[in-house]
Every structure is written in structure tokens, then in C-alpha cells.
């Protein structure tokens, strides 16, 4: 049984057809990647899945529940959490307090929430920065904080939206290791958007490629990088941009 099942999802913004009848499945324990050039509809797809915008058509089912019409906090309560392209720490709050906010959801077991938050900060390598104001963290550490705050909700599915954006090669390698460890140790199912192709392809077991809001290919990383439609839509466009 799929953990996440999307059928014929559709979204328009006026004359822009941002998501075109997208269907995809994510099984428990997978790391699935969403690939596509800028403007392909990847973040819009995430916003539809997580309830930030309503779809115009189609259905999204998560862990047996339809998500149509549900607010984001209700979807989090079912076991789905996400990060964002741009880090969004709660300004004026410490690193520890940011994670504690994520611990307020209905899935979180009763107990010592502060110790649980400290354990999560240790999981992501921020155990020595719990009292630092969140906005004073480096950008790489803010990425880690976003993941810890999402983990605090006890998710079954974690959606990562360009987690490597703005990071150097060393930070990317460390964050890749963290994502692999979370997947292995916590059994997390992960859906991942990323433009850093080398790291992306090493992390995911399956790729869904989209362009102009529609799915153009699906398969293993090896199949995707050799797919003519993907080369035309993504790699070819990147090469043209670099040549310009």
C-alpha cells in the first residue's frame, strides 16, 4: 500500500497551468526525488500536497486519508512534515524553542518535551546551539534546524524542498549524510526536491521528473539521466543557461 498517492492533481493560476494532471505514488520507506527545471511546478506540487494551496482537480491520499480540503496543521497531524526553499525559523526564539513548537502536534507522545527536543537537536548536530537565537544561526545550521523542527512533529513522511540550496560542498556532504542516517535510523519516508543533481541522484532510489507542471518520466536515477525527455527539459536547458 502506498503511503502517499496522488491522482490527476491539477492546479491553475489564471492562465498558468502550474500542475497538470500529476499522478505519483510513494511507498513506505522510499526516498523519492522530484526533478525538474526552475518553474516546472515542483514547489507548487509540494504546496498542494501539504495544504498550503487547494487543488483544482484530482486527489491526494496520505496513509489512507484524503487530504482534499485539509488545512496544513491537520495534514501535519496525520504524519506529514516539510521544509521550505527559504529557511523560516521562528525569529526571536531560541533554537530549542523552535523545535519545541514542532512538538505541540497531536502525534507527539507525552513526556519530557524539552529532553526530546534536545535529542532531536543532537540528531541534527545542533546540540551545542540550543540557546542561540534561531535567526543567528548560519544558513547551513538553519537548514538543520528546519529538519529538526519537522522531525519534532513525528512524521511518517518528510518533504524536503531544496535542502542543499545556498550550501557549500562540505555542508552539502554533511547534510546528505544526515538525510541518509535519518532515513536508515528512523525509517522515514522522504520526498525530495533538489537542483544539485550529483547529490540528489546519490540520495534517491526513484525519480519523478516534471516539466511545465506535468510528469514526463519516472524511474531509477540511472534511467532518468538517460531519458530523452529529461535531457531535453532539464539537462539541456541547464547547458543552454551556462552557455549564455
Quickly list its features:
244 residues, alpha/beta, Rossmann fold, 2 domains, six-stranded mixed sheet, globular
Beta-strand portion reads 15-25%
Strand order of the largest sheet: 6-7-8-3-9-10
Any idea of the CATH topology of the largest domain?
Rossmann fold
Number of helices: 9
Rounded to an integer, what's the Rg over CA atoms? 18 Å
Round the mean pLDDT to the nearest integer and report it.
91
Low-confidence stretches: 239-244
Listing every helix as H and every strand as E from the N terminus to the C terminus, the arrangement reads EEEHEEHEHHHEHEHEEHH
Q: Distance between the terminal alpha carbons, to the nearest Å? A: 46 Å
Number of domain units:
2
- Which structural class should the secondary elements be placed in? alpha/beta
The helix content, as a percent range, equals 25-40%
Largest sheet: 6 strands, mixed
User: What oligomerization state is this entry in?
Assistant: single chain
Coarse morphology: globular
CATH hierarchy: architecture of the largest domain? 3-Layer(aba) Sandwich
